[in-house]
Amino acid sequence: MYRDFYRQYMQQYRRVINVILDNWPLRKQLGFYAYLPIFFAIGAWTEFTMIHMRINGIDFYSVYMRKERERLAQERKNILSNVHLFRIFFEKMPFGLSWSSYLSRVMAALLAAACGSQLVHSVYRPLESDRIEQMLDAKRAELEQQSSSLSSTATTTTTTTTSKMVNQS
């Protein structure tokens, strides 16, 4: 009974998805590439969640840096064999596609996702610190104070020197 319900549910789900995909704008003219805005939105959403989602005070970037250090340490210890890499890379392609077709579709989807991710990253700038801006503002104020005090000291020195020269003559 559960299998029948599941099978019917999945058939309805597939019909809805097929209707949406078949009626997608420019689907007939652009083929697969008409779906690139979906991948753009997925990339933007992914970057947004990586920047703003904190679980128990831990965010993506702190975990990323720790994992990157661990990966580099492990990479130094273990070097993969060239035969293993060759076997992984040249396995049979999924869905019976040619290499060129598969790579162009994957690259287009990745490029769209990267563009969406970069857009959100450039807007929110997660790696840029507010402290840097505060330090620059404080340094500017300090330099302005120094320049104003130097100009007043220079005026006083010039006046004193002029009065000494007048007194000597």
From TrEMBL:
The keyword Endoplasmic reticulum is assigned to this record: no
Superkingdom as given in the UniProt entry: Eukaryota
Membrane-spanning ranges: 32-55
Span of the signal peptide: none
Biased composition (Low complexity): 147-163
Region (Disordered): 144-169
Record keywords, A-Z: Membrane, Transmembrane, Transmembrane helix
Transmembrane helix keyword on record: yes
Pfam families: DUF4516 (PF14990), UPF0640 (PF15114)
Name of the protein in its database record: Uncharacterized protein
Species name: Dermatophagoides pteronyssinus
